[in-house]
Design a protein that fits this description.
Layout lengths: L1 H30 L2 H8 L8 H10 L9 H31 L6 H22 L3 H5 L1 H13 L7 E4 L2 E7 L2 E3 L1 H19 L7 H21 L3 H18 L3 H20 L2 H8 L13 H13 L24 H33 L4 H25 L17 H19 L5
Helix pairs in contact: 4-5, 4-14, 4-16, 5-16, 7-8, 8-9, 8-10, 8-15, 8-16, 9-10, 9-11, 10-11, 10-15, 13-14, 14-15, 15-16
Length: about 425
């Protein structure tokens, strides 16, 4: 027993001596560690430049997994819409361009160029995290308001069909109200993300949201563009509803918006007659409803399977603006009810998967951004199709992805890229 304890005591004493002898060495190694010396030498100031923060955040961003199925559905629909839209723009504009002495590919060439720009913009919007655009909400708002004032500048603004909503210099033209729609979606989503805890607060939430809609719609109405004002109002109300604004405040904002639109319409006898002509198209088919009547005739000529690409007779001069606002009439004429139904169904699927993207968004801003873009596409398609088919007044709105118009096509594709960016970063289940 005594010998066993003695051996144990010797082992314990040896272990203690070994530990005591190596402790100073370990302490010295810790002091002279290359890692600590490097960390001390590389220590950065607390207030480092923003560019370093941005680059660091970009390098350390989490790697994304495979895109969900929603991503591929939205991308596929947009791709089909753009390609079909280019074909229909060429079909609808070639004859009229030849009749005025231009190349049959004049309108198509410009549309194809903008489609190329839109593809680049869509890829950039898809790859860049959508939260980046939230940080740029205020600069974008300033640029959007400034661009809406440019059409009033002498020598730059152009009036078309009573609306001074175009900017033209040289051979380049654009419609700033299309870019304003995108700005309104981003700004409204940013404001309602910040006000998550005070949705019913009149001063902090309701009035700022009303101010966004009022300023943007007033700029559109000042240009004489009622259609864009309607779409912008619908975007803001949709984002507010998705964000959880009480229905009482939403109803109040909706009533004020409708009242403002009606005041704008009745303020001009010419505008009022055009706005109410859809109630009796047959009686006004020689003047106010001429375009709607010819569009309905073109739709009826298509039948079930259509007259084939290039077979429409309405585009030879009977239907004005066949390649822009009323391109759906040419689609129904040449592709028939099957093609027209596919286009309408495509918009329904696009909006449905956009809503699904909003529901699966990883944060509140992504949810509001995706929901606002989906509402934008849906409302603008409804207003355009309603005017073409005589169910609603004609407001001059384009059909997204189809109508000729570089501004509309580019902004629609960029907005689709933002929608894809949200879908790309949705958590997989």
């Amino acid at each position: 027993m005594t010998s066993t304890l003695t051996v144990a005591d010797r082992r314990r004493a040896a272990l203690e001596r070994r530990t005591a002898s190596t402790a100073p060495v370990r302490a010295a190694q810790r002091v002279k560690s290359p890692r600590s010396t490097t960390d001390a030498g590389r220590r950065r100031p607390l207030l480092q430049p923003a560019r370093h923060v941005t680059k660091s955040a970009w390098r350390t961003r989490p790697k994304l997994g495979p895109p969900p199925g929603t991503f591929y559905v939205i991308a596929g629909i947009v791709a089909v819409f753009v390609m079909l839209g280019l074909v229909m723009v060429l079909s609808a504009s070639a004859i009229t361009q030849v009749n005025v002495g231009n190349s049959p590919y004049a309108v198509f060439g410009r549309q194809a160029m903008w489609a190329g720009f839109g593809l680049v913009g869509m890829i950039i919007a898809t790859q860049v995290p959508y939260t980046v655009w939230r940080r740029l909400a205020i600069p974008l708002a300033v640029l959007g308001v400034g661009a809406m004032l440019v059409p009033f500048a002498p020598g730059l603004g152009v009036s078309i069909n009573g609306a001074r909503s175009w900017i033209r210099f040289g051979g380049f033209s654009m419609q700033p109200s299309e870019f304003l729609k995108l700005v309104v979606v981003i700004v409204a989503a940013d404001v309602l993300t910040r006000r998550e805890r005070g949705m019913a607060d009149l001063a902090r939430t309701v009035l700022p949201v009303a101010a966004i809609a009022a300023i943007a719609a007033a700029l559109c109405l000042a240009q004489g563009d009622l259609g864009s004002a309607i779409v912008i109002g619908a975007i803001v109300l949709s984002v507010a509803w998705i964000a959880g604004l009480p229905m009482r405040q939403i109803s109040m904002l909706g009533l004020v918006s409708i009242a403002g639109a009606l005041i704008f319409v009745v303020s001009s006898p010419r505008r009022l007659s055009r706005f109410t002509a859809f109630t009796d198209i047959e009686a006004h088919k020689e003047f106010e409803s001429y375009q709607v009547y010819q569009g309905l005739v073109s739709i009826a000529n298509g039948g079930l399977t259509g007259s084939g690409i290039g077979g429409s007779r309405a585009k030879t001069g009977f239907l004005p603006y066949a390649h822009s606002d009323f391109i759906f009439s040419i689609i129904a004429d040449e592709l028939g009810m099957i093609g027209a139904g596919a286009v309408v169904g495509g918009f329904i699927v696009l909006v449905a998967f956009g809503v699904q993207t909003a529901l699966a968004a990883p944060d509140r801003f992504g949810m509001l951004l995706a929901g606002g873009i989906s509402a934008w596409f849906g409302v603008q398609a409804i207003v355009n199709l309603g005017g073409v088919t005589g169910l609603m007044p004609v407001t001059g709105l384009t059909l997204p992805f189809f109508s000729a118009g570089g501004s509309s096509l580019f902004v629609s594709m960029f907005a689709a890229g933002l929608l894809l960016s949200v879908a790309r970063r949705a958590p997989r289940r």
